[in-house]
Design a protein that fits this description.
Largest sheet: 8 strands, parallel, barrel
Oligomer: single chain
Shape: elongated
Strand order of the largest sheet: 2-3-4-5-6-8-9-10
Number of helices: 11
């Protein structure tokens, strides 16, 4: 549905997404497949619209976390191959087969479970094998004394007659780190992954069609890890410490408007708990955005929004639905004036540093009541509001 309000919204710049895709393709090479990570609603950007744009641009694969996310894309006419990175219950294997989805297999027990479920469905399940080379999360254990057993287990999965094993992958834990330890750790992971691939292929007697391990940090720092396919996440959306160096642009801007302006005398407590007290006559603007929209409370008194007159410091506790800004030095800002919470001119990377987190968490936190407006050539080409409102308004 489309929002009826001009309150708070997120602008998704599809031209920036195109720029980023093309820049990354230039870096990784035309022969290397490109997987677009669109899990968690494309990190808050809108998985359907992002997936359709990536399809138009020539991407080869998409990745989501769950079967529900994958089915949403299929129901919205997204036809690219989709890899499910997370767990799928055996009761849902029929949907994987029916919707032509690719499932990650992380251990022997899952391989046998999926084999049996696919057999009962009378179908073949396409899979990618996940190898744990040092992330210590999901995947076949293959390090040290577990190498031989891990290789044997992967070969066993590859030979199951109701599984079609198309690919194999691992995930780097420190590829965006700058320390000597991080570099050594990433190289160890890559060398181990290559060793596993070679060991499995030698015993299996076949080659994997797709080997992939290059996430954002690896695409930026370790071009040798590209192999058959890359899967940048943060870079695709134009955030992080490598974005500027690679010529990438932020895709999302979060914006709001000034709803009310009041003037307070010195010594006035602003918002809950009185964490901010005016030290002069202060012109205060109220923005209809709060932590329920994704503007985190722990940024209270730390961040400045960008107005037409320049930065305006956010003051007092951020509330659930609104927050206050100091407009004393912004005389031209009035009621209904637009402000940028983060975006092209107000870096989300700096905001993330203040919040002691990563840009991913901030974009993923933008709530369903915030409309997404999709722009191309500077004009709105689509709009989406995720609130459940059956029927028409009015």
């Amino acid at each position: 549905m489309i929002s009826t309000l001009r309150r708070t919204w997120a602008e998704i710049d599809l031209d920036a997404l195109e720029n980023n895709y093309k820049k990354l393709k230039e870096k990784t090479g035309e022969k290397t497949k490109f997987l677009g990570v669109v899990k968690a609603d494309a990190y808050g950007h809108g998985s359907v619209q992002v997936a359709k744009k990536l399809t138009e641009l020539g991407a080869d694969y998409l990745a989501v976390s769950s079967v529900d996310e994958a089915m949403e894309l299929r129901e919205n006419e997204v036809s690219l191959p989709i890899l499910i990175l997370g767990h799928t219950p055996k009761e849902q294997i029929h949907n994987l087969i029916d919707y032509k989805l690719t499932q990650t297999i992380t251990c022997k027990a899952k391989a046998l479970e999926y084999q049996q479920a696919a057999l009962e469905c009378g179908g073949i399940l396409k899979c990618h094998i996940k190898v744990d080379t040092g992330m210590s999360r999901l995947g076949y254990l293959v390090d040290d004394e577990g190498f031989a057993g891990g290789v044997d287990g992967i070969v066993e999965a590859c030979r199951l007659d109701h599984l079609e094993v198309e690919g194999i992958f691992t995930h780097f834990a420190m590829s965006d780190g700058d320390s000597e330890f991080a570099v050594d750790y990433t190289r160890h992971q890559f060398e181990l992954f290559q060793k596993v691939c070679a060991g499995v292929e030698a015993v299996w007697g076949r080659k994997f069609q797709i080997r992939h391990c290059a996430n954002t940090g690896a695409v930026a720092n370790y071009p040798e890890t590209a192999l058959d396919m890359v899967r940048p996440g943060l870079l695709l959306y134009g955030y992080g410490k490598y974005a500027e160096r690679l010529g990438l642009l932020p895709v999302m801007s979060l914006k709001s408007v000034v709803s009310t302006i009041k003037v307070y005398q010195p010594g006035t407590f602003i918002s809950y708990d009185g964490t901010y007290v005016t030290d002069k006559v202060t012109r205060v603007g109220v923005l209809p955005i709060g932590y329920a929209d994704g503007y985190h409370r722990y940024l209270s008194n730390k961040w400045s929004v960008l107005t037409e007159d320049g930065p305006a410091k956010q003051i007092g506790r951020i509330c659930m639905d609104m927050c206050m800004i100091d407009l004393s030095d912004c005389p031209d800002v009035d009621v209904d004036s637009e402000v940028e919470i983060f975006g092209r001119q107000n870096s989300i990377d700096e905001m993330a540093l203040l919040a002691e987190t990563i840009p991913y968490e901030l974009t993923c936190s933008i709530s369903k009541r915030v409309p997404r407006r999709y722009l191309s050539n500077g004009a709105v080409v689509d709009e989406e509001l995720l609130l459940r409102m059956p029927g028409s308004l009015g």
